[in-house]
Amino acid sequence: MTSFMLSGTNASKISSQLTHLRHQMGTPAVGMVLTLVVVCGESDQYDAVRAATEAAREHPSRILVVIPRDPSEPNRLDAEIRFGESTPGEVILLRLYGELTRHADSVVSPLLLTDTPVVAWWPSDCPEVPAADPIGMLAQRRIVDARSAPDSVKAIAGRARGYVPGDTDLAWTRLTTWRSLLAAAFDQPVAKVKRGTVEAVPGHASALLLAAWLGERLGAPVKVSDSSGPGLTSVKLVSGDGDITITRGDGRLAMLSRPGQPDRRVALARRPTSDLLAEELRRLDPDEIYAAAIQRLARTRKS
Amino acid sequence: MSRENPQPQADRPRAEELTATGTAHEGAVTTATAASIAGITEALIESNPLRDPRDKRLPRVAGPCVLVLFGVTGDLARKKLLPAIYDLANRGLLPPGFSLVGFARRDWEDQDFAQLTHDAVKEHARTPFREEVWKQLSEGIFFCRGEFTDDGAFDALAMMLKEIDETRGTGGNYGFYLSVPPKFFPVVVQQLKRTDLADGPGGSWRRVVIEKPFGHDLRSAQELNAITSAVFPESSVFRIDHYLGKETVQNILALRFANNLFEPIWNRGYVDHVQITMAEDIGIGGRAGYYDGIGAARDVIQNHLLQLLALVGMEDPTSFGADSLRREKEKVLKAVRLPSDLSLTTARGRYGAGWQGGEPVIGYTQEEGIPPDSITETYAAIKLEIANRRWAGVPFYLRTGKRLSRRVTEVAVVFQRAPHLPFSKDDTEILGQNALVIRVQPDEGITVRFGSKVPGTAMEVRDVSMDFAYGESFMESSPEAYERLLLDVLIGDPPLFPHQREVELSWKILDPIEDFWSTQGPPEEYPAGTWGPASADEMMARDGHVWRRL
Asked: How does pLDDT run across B292-304, given as a tens digit for each residue?
């Protein structure tokens, strides 16, 4: 991997340095499909970059990491350019000092790949309304993560307020395997579901979303109760024919039971952040099902 | 179809997948299909409240079912099928309760077959090995021992399947994968009929999967079809041509029909000729028994290359459903015409001893099991024409061969020269023809070749290539063709499988050529590691063309 540092620089210098480095490596044209802008603090930077580079193996991207530093220092932009074996795209770490911390978009905007989608990701702290954020305004897709918020439950319940099509939350992405399994269980006819329960460790944002989604789709009350984990541990739906349950005690292998059918074991492992991110990058259109789930969640929490 | 297909939404994601390479395109689609989506949504919500066509995160998952694999010890099963099943499970695309039954002569128990599967998966699977996935899969692995002629063995199989339905909840849905030589088809299919396995009770499905070769000429293909169609309806027969499961081959449709850039020039007004090539660097290996008497044209041109021709040459289908897609492919195959003088428009050869990639290799007639007086070809090149408004007068050249210089499969659409060049003759001396190349394997992608000015004070124009590599723009490893095709079988989604009518049309194209060749004695020899016999180059030269150097 090649790494190159520029301190006290600006976007146009970074840009020409990139072109120069690419010529030097002998790869002037690369088939990158999108720009991923990661906004995070210095302490989250390592894990976020690692997940983003992993995901870039499926979706070659230019990854721009925006790290706001001390706003009381004089204005300054430091850049670190990485590219080479570990990633098919490029990674540029941007460290912003002084007043520049509030004008990150002025650095990011000239570095976006031309005419390809832009995705913004806040792995930890995120703006109240991502679409109104200067960086968020540049992006078609805005990814946040309720799990990293200080109060995940409050965070996920408040998502509907600032929702703009194109927003998404990794707490929702974590549910895809569960939802897929539940949907498969309903592929054979099932009597009307009367009520349901989702069990998870206390304060689990995804559990609330899953309950909201099930409630919305099945038209039945679905409540959330606490268990000792890890993560989501079970879903139980009470229907006229009997119970449909999925239980997962170890975070890896689940048991599916349906009325009139033998119990079956199904792999249902928790997925690493890179997988979640890769899933998000696969579809860049607004997720209406997610919108319906957060709106229901907001409604039911209020009443 | 709806009776068979437990997931009515299966059609829509398919259309999405095939067309959605650009997002700008989506606006138009939204308005055009809004009405039909509303219809689908209602029907779907009624059948499964948790599914919604707008919910694109949920993958297409097969319904509960059993896959019965005949010929489990073969190379194909070990290297492709079993790993593909694991990869599907790993991606969460197999239903809970999915079961796999192996049928073979071996004196084995369930766990022996599980062990074979385990080893095959460890060695050949594309995705990483995960213990919990294996646990889920291995619980559903069973083995049934017997000969194909043994009634008792098939009675046992029927019993076993019934039991699996009860213990694993597979609901009487069975797929039978015949990974065995075609001579065993009649007996296996008859056994399935006798034991009532070919006919499921209402609400369940039975499907049979067969591999090429689909006969060796028109008559044998019809006979083969008579055997399967006597027992299974055409809609339950899935003929696997693994080329159609490849991402790049499906991308031909996306390239042509999702873009506005290429279609206007995709006709005789701009295209000079088309070259479709499948070159292999290997010899016949241990396949002497199968290969001798069959030859390159029957082995490759009849299925893979004519399917590629159909996809490149067809008109736009009204939808990406199986019916419309197959109808368009049939139309173009029906319009294929052979030139009148086959001696000038076909070429065949067989490899002699030589050097291939730095190693000395033996010739075809020295391979073990090949009679010295064999007249089988290992290289075949043919010229075809398509008699319709779009393609009249545009030759399609198809070539395939073994022990060529390297392994490559591609479709090259070569365009006409510019009608007028405002440069002096010296400036454009080395300028070739524009070409659009679809690289099928290896290094899947698309290349566009066009002229560009060489930097400097003189106006010199030279060919340059612009590359789109799949591996670079998407996915570290795209799903194997067999993964896609197996999933389509289990879901019951047939567009990627050739219909019997296509098989027969392809034989109608090839049979006259084979008849002609059979009167011509042994084929011309070419040294291994080269690009085929001289007669193939002469064939092109007569039309003023040359093969692309690959």
From this structure: 888 999 999 999 9
Closest approach of chain A CAs to the CA of B164, in angstroms? 10
User: How far is Cα A132 from Cα B264, in angstroms, rounded to an integer?
Assistant: 42
Smallest CA–CA distance from A180 into chain B, residue: B58
Whether residues A60 and B472 touch (CB distance < 8 A) is answered with yes
Task: Tell which of B57, B121, B452 to mutate to test the A interface (max A CBs under 10 Å).
Answer: B57
Contact between B345 and B509 (Cβ < 8 Å): no
What is the identity of the amino acid at B520?
Q
Contact B103, B70 (CB under 8 A): yes
ipTM: 0.82
Mean pLDDT by 10 residues, chain A (303 residues): 85 88 67 88 92 86 93 94 73 94 92 90 92 92 93 91 93 93 84 92 93 93 91 92 90 86 85 91 90 92 67
Q: Residue B439: helix, strand or coil by DSSP?
A: strand
For A196, phi then psi, to 5°, come to -155, 165
**Inter-chain residue contact A267 with B23, CB threshold 8 Å:** no
Which residues of B, range 412-451, sit inside 8 Å of A by Cβ?
A: none
pTM reported for the whole predicted model: 0.83
Residues of chain B neighbouring A252 (CB-CB closer than 8 A)? 131-132
Residues of chain B with pLDDT under 50: 1-44
pLDDT of residue B118: 94
Measuring CA to CA, how many Å separate B422 from each of B39, B269, B418, B427, B453? 57, 21, 10, 10, 13
